[in-house]
Every structure is written in C-alpha cells, then in structure tokens.
C-alpha cells in the first residue's frame, strides 16, 4: 500500500540547478581562500585596503579575487539568498545573474567547472560534492571559509546530506540530467563560444524550471507570498497567476495544503 510520504517528494532535492549553484559557491570560496592564504582579502585591486597593499605589493602576483568591488560582495550576498531559497531556473537565467554580480574571473571559472563536470563522467560529479566539505572544515585556519550556520553553510550541508542518501542509480540519473541542463555549454569549444552560445539560446539545457522542485522551496514560496500579501500587496504575484502556481504546486506537494489555506484565507 502506497503511503502519503511515498507519494510526496523529499523535503529537499539535489537538482542540476542546485549543482550549478554549488559550483558557483565553490569557485567564489576557492578564490576567497586563495586570497586569504596570500593575505590579499576578497576584493580585487583597489578594494583590499592598506593591509592588503602592504602584505602583497605586487598586484600582478595576487591570486584572482572573486569580486572587483565591495558593491559586488554585497550583491553576491543578496544573490545567494535568492539562489539557495528561490526557484530552480534554467542555466541561461542562472549564468546571467552570476555574470551580473561577480567578476569575469568567477563567471569564467563557473562556466569551465560546469563543463568539466558535464564532460568527465559521474566520478567528477561525486568528487566535486566531496570537495564541498573543505569549505566547512579548513585544517589550515581556525575559522573555515564558510560558517556551518550561515546561509551558504546550511545550503551546502543540506545538499551534501541529500546527495549522500542517493543510490548510485539516482546519482547516475542526476548526472545525465545535469548533462542535459548544461548541454549547450558542453557543445561549446572556448569560453567566448560558451558565453555567446548560452545567451543566444532561448531553450537552454533542460526545460525551464520556474516552479519549486522540492517541498522546502514550495514552502518558502508560499511563506513569501503570505508576507507580501500582508505587507506589500503590489509586490505579490497577480492573483490569477498565483492561483495557477498553487495548483501546480499542490500536484507535486500535497502536504502544502495547510500553507495554501493560510495563503488564500
């Protein structure tokens, strides 16, 4: 007999979109850690302060910084909340946000890493997920690059836990879904080709993901709409569109009925 829990999706899911977000986070943290080890801080030339200038006077020898300015750092913090708590999106939409809020070094590194994982097989994906642990535990520093209780830390830990529970068959399916999601990048030759290709396509990788794919995302969506209806009704989704979204959400997330009742009451 099928139970209600077996019909409902897990609280959280690892999707190609979330793998891509993890790649973005990993590349930013990797560059930030390299700068920390060299004493350069997390901002490029002109943004590191007097101490960075004294510890690393030769700008040509500085490791690449993930951000060109303090403003980009603030934009990254806001973007991460959106990426980790919002809807899944197609790769074109995700990369456009990354390019708008990060340095060209980060954007190019993310594109290359997506391509590497999509081209080098399932083991590359599994190895990447294992490397995420180094963001949370750094033996070379008393303070790790990512705090476990931060927005990024909680997201990384959730994705690692969910991934660890996948069977090999499920990991294989996830990998093939990731290849489809990033298919236009995988067919490109150079970074320039990739950038032009990805932004010239209207159908990028898998079908556009405009709805939450897990119960957690669906709950966050409903909670936000409740808050907007109470505090800023003009910023909430139009009633007709909201009704259609709720119907679609309830198909895959029947446990949302209580939250939906609160939304429409």
Could you walk me through the main structural features you see in this protein, from its secondary elements to its overall organization?
With 265 residues, the chain is an all-alpha fold. Helices cover 65% and strands 0% of the residues. It has 15 helices and no strands. It has helices at residues 4-7, 16-38, 49-55, 70-85, 91-101, 104-119, 122-131, 133-136, 151-164, 168-181, 183-186, 191-200, 215-231, 239-252, 257-264. Helix 4 (70-85) runs antiparallel to helix 5 (91-101). The protein starts with a helix and ends with a helix.
Key structural traits:
disordered N terminus
How would you state the average pLDDT, rounded?
75
**CA-based shape:** globular
Q: Terminal Cα separation, in Å?
A: 34 Å
Q: What oligomeric state best describes the polypeptide chains here?
A: single chain
Cα gyration radius (Å): 20 Å
Task: Provide the helix percentage.
Answer: 55-70%
Q: Could you give the order of the helices and strands?
A: HHHHHHHHHHHHHHH
Give the number of DSSP strands.
0
**Weakly predicted, low-confidence segments:** 1-8, 44-57, 201-212
Produce a short descriptive summary:
With about 260 residues, this protein is an all-alpha fold.
